[in-house]
C-alpha cells in the first residue's frame, strides 16, 4: 500500500479539480478558506496552467488577482501558462499574463526554445505578430537556438507560412544563411516540408545575405591593405 495522502494533498487535489471544472464559486470559497495557489498536479501544472488550458477567462482573472499567484511557474516540461496561451493562439490570455508579470524573454530550460519558437511551431501568425510587437524579440533573443540549433526562422521555414518567415526577417532575423545541427538552412527546411514559396523567398534572402557578407569581408580586406600600404609609405 502507498503512503496515505495528507490533508493538504487532498485539499490541493480538490482545488485543482474545481479549477479544471470551472467551478468559480467553489474555488472562491477554497481561497477564502486559505487554499494555497501553489498546488500542482502530477505534471507540475498549476491552477493558472489549467485556467489557460481551458480558455477560462473568468477563472484566470480570479486566480491571477490573488496574492502570490504562480503566474510564471513552469511545469515539468518547462511550459509556463504563457506558453500554453501561445500554443492555443489565445492572445487575450497572453496579454493578461504579460500584464501580470510573465517573463516573455525566458527560455524553456528543457528544450531551449523561446516563446517565439512556440508561436512559430504552432503556425500562429497572430501570436508571432503579438510577440514581435512587444519589442522584446530582437538581437540574441530573435536568433536564439533550440537544442537542434534552430532559430525561430528555421522553425518557421519548416512549419509556418511564408508570411511568418517574412515577419521574422523584417524584424531582423539573420539566420537565413546559417545551418542547424543537421546542416539544414531555413530554405532546406522549407523544401523538405514542401513549402515552395517559402523556399524561393528564403533562397532570395540567403543570396542577399551572402552578398552582404561578401561585401563586408571585401571592405575589411581593402581597409587592411590600405593600412598596410600606409605603413609601408611611412
Q: What are the defining features of this structure?
A:
13 helices, Serine Threonine Protein Phosphatase 5, Tetratricopeptide repeat, Ankyrin_rpt-contain_sf, mainly alpha, Ankyrin_rpt, repeat, 234 residues, 2 domains
Please name the CATH architecture of the largest domain: Alpha Horseshoe
Helix content: 55-70%
Mean pLDDT: 91
Number of strands: 0
Give the topology.
Elements: H1 7-21, H2 24-32, H3 47-53, H4 57-64, H5 81-87, H6 91-99, H7 115-122, H8 125-133, H9 139-142, H10 152-159, H11 162-170, H12 186-192, H13 196-233
Helix pairs in contact: 3-4, 3-5, 5-6, 5-7, 7-8, 7-10, 8-11, 10-11, 10-12, 11-13, 12-13
Walk me through what this model shows:
- This protein is mostly helical and 234 residues long.
- The chain has 13 helices and no strands.
- The chain has 2 domains: 95 residues, Ankyrin repeat-containing domain (Serine Threonine Protein Phosphatase 5, Tetratricopeptide repeat, Alpha Horseshoe), CATH 1.25.40; 117 residues, Ankyrin repeat-containing domain (Serine Threonine Protein Phosphatase 5, Tetratricopeptide repeat).
- The protein is elongated.
- InterPro entries: Ankyrin_rpt, Ankyrin_rpt-contain_sf.
Describe the structure in brief.
The chain has about 230 residues and is an all-alpha fold. The protein contains 13 helices and no strands.
Amino acid at each position: 500500500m502507498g503512503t496515505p495522502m495528507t490533508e493538504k494533498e487532498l485539499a490541493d487535489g480538490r482545488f485543482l479539480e474545481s479549477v479544471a471544472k470551472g467551478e468559480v464559486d467553489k474555488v472562491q470559497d477554497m481561497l477564502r478558506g486559505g487554499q494555497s495557489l501553489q498546488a500542482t498536479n502530477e505534471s507540475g501544472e498549476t491552477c493558472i496552467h489549467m485556467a489557460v488550458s481551458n480558455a477560462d477567462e473568468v477563472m484566470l482573472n480570479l486566480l491571477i488577482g490573488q496574492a502570490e499567484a504562480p503566474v510564471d511557474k513552469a511545469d515539468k516540461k518547462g511550459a509556463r501558462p504563457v506558453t500554453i496561451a501561445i500554443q492555443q493562439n489565445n492572445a487575450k490570455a497572453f496579454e493578461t499574463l504579460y500584464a501580470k508579470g510573465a517573463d516573455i524573454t525566458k527560455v524553456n530550460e528543457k528544450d531551449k526554445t523561446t516563446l517565439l519558437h512556440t508561436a512559430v511551431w504552432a503556425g500562429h501568425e497572430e501570436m508571432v505578430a503579438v510577440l514581435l510587437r512587444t519589442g522584446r524579440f530582437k538581437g540574441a533573443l530573435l536568433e536564439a537556438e533550440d537544442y537542434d540549433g534552430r532559430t525561430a526562422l528555421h522553425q518557421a521555414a519548416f512549419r509556418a507560412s511564408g508570411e511568418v518567415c517574412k515577419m521574422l526577417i523584417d524584424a531582423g532575423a539573420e539566420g537565413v544563411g546559417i545551418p542547424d545541427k543537421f546542416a539544414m538552412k531555413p530554405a532546406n527546411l522549407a523544401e523538405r516540408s514542401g513549402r515552395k514559396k517559402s523556399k524561393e523567398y528564403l533562397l532570395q534572402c540567403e543570396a542577399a545575405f551572402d552578398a552582404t557578407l561578401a561585401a563586408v569581408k571585401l571592405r575589411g580586406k581593402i581597409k587592411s591593405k590600405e593600412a598596410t600600404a600606409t605603413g609601408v609609405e611611412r
